[in-house]
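Notes from the pairing session

We agreed to fold both candidates in a single pass and log them together. This is the raw record for the first candidate, unedited. Please don't reformat it; downstream parsing expects exactly this layout.

Candidate A
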Amino acid sequence: MSKAKRGIYAAAISPFRADGSLDAAKLIGYCRYLLTEGGCDGVAPTGTTGEGNSISFRERLELPAAFAEAGFSAETVIIGTGSCATQDAVDLTRAAVAAGLPNVLVLPPFYYKAPSDEGLYAYFSRLIEEVGDDRLRVYLYHFPQMSMTPIPVDVVRRLKAAYGPMVAGLKDSSGDLAQSLAFVEATGGVAEDFDVYPSSEAMLFDGLAGGCAGVISGSTNAFGAYARQAMAEGSPDSPAFALVKAARAVASKYPLMAAMKQLEAWRSGDESWTRMAPPLVGLSEDQKTALRADIDGLEARAEAG
């Protein structure tokens, strides 16, 4: 079994059918694109950008087997399995491990607010012990703005000490590089085989220099190739990385999931990509016009080098 490789990940958007169900086959095809032309080292489906908590339990339960049957390597996929109900998280995680995809991204239980450190530890501890498989690799998911349930550094340190390699890393969507580096300091980061991933490619080089493993980002759905070029050039002062930061700034102007879906609809010529799971909605006409102008500007800049 393979721990997820380090590098650039896309928190993959999810395609929905007209009836609101997940189109797993289209998602798999899209993730293949992200791993090739899309410039990414890995994909993280059914996370926040993938509207994972708006996808039914049954569909999420079936998804790992579909990825495995499609031939995805375990080292390129981190599947979101977090849930408010511990047993749901256990069942989703077991399905991933059973399919040969042991790398999972796990939100804390986010309905009851201000849980104690002991309660958060109990949730993740029960998940790991109930799954009961040494192949499991858990990536903790710290996203306090969305979940309203931060994962304290001390809880991360305690879990890592108790479960070793099964607590493989952490995605930090706080948007605060100092927070990511605090997780690195507490665990040893990549030097101690604990992989912290900030959520913005604009932090890529600072994060790597500080002991992070790469990024897991929503905007790399559209701009992963820019990040790949910046990595190839290898300098935070390169024109390629300036373009990465400009693209991230564009993404931050719009509702991220809706913008990434609109960009994929334009790229693929498939307008069904703009479907969102309620309560989220697509971009307004004014937003589409502004986004199109912003993207034209980025593409002109990329062509000019």
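Candidate B (folded immediately after A)
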Amino acid sequence: MENKNNKFVELEQGGGGNMSNELIFEIRKFFPVVKNWKNIKDDGAVFDLGKEKLVFTTDAFIVDPIFFPGGDIGKIAICGTINDLSVMGAVPIGISLSLVIEDGFPKDDLKKIMQSIGKISKETGVPIVTGDTKVTEKGKIDKIEITTSGIGLASKIIENGGAKAGDAVIASGNLGEHTVALLASRFNYQTKIKSDCQSLTKEIQSIARYLTACKDPTRGGVAAVLNEIAEKSKIKIILNETDLPFAKETVALSGLLGIDKFSFPSEGRFVATVAKKDAEKVIKVLQRFNRKAKIIGTVTKGNGVWLKTKLGGEKKIEVPRGKLIPRIC
């Protein structure tokens, strides 16, 4: 039911769509104007260090279930923060880890989660450098909550608002598979798909010089992030229905549950724009990491995000609104 009095925070305001943006706007108005930090409305904030730029980001994670095919809450937490730095062109150099644990949480489960974080930290060379741990009374939270913050260094920032008319739109692989893994676990839906959760630093660094805009489609999925890029860049994005980067099982689950696949979050994919002349070259590089990487659309003059259908018409892809998919990242 819609909260007409607007006196309480609603679950829908954490889903990554329009209602999330409205809540963030309400919160931001209490803070003083930021003077020395830039890009504060992107995935991270940027501080100029001269020849290099410091990128700082933070995120909180509540996931249900906390273990799922292809990962767990720990893997999402460290990969999510690494990726928020990576999509801005930064190389991550350190992560902070904050845990709020429910009284009675199994230590074996905690060990598994920490092992997941440690594995990604070792593989990526991004250390956990500081953190905090709290234990709260049973029933005060649902099992465990993790907050990670990260810093990285970049020589050039990839801004969300840098897309230009004539660019190609690319995806680093099939989208929404993190959502499929989570929902399949919740509803006992049989699927071979595992979460796409992974670090994106190597992929993005290999092509960063060609990217005009870049973002990982987490909360709100590709619908939310491409609309953000279109709005900030003041351009129109056209996706080709015949090139949609969704596996058949993702499309099937979307139809079964009545949830728009364009709002399905991913935790190890990115969408980006690149000059048309460089697009094929970029895709060839990305396919070394994921053979499903492909060109999925174009950038033109105009506004909004549109789907060019198989019949040749255009259908608008709106920013997700209302109750989406809670507790997924």
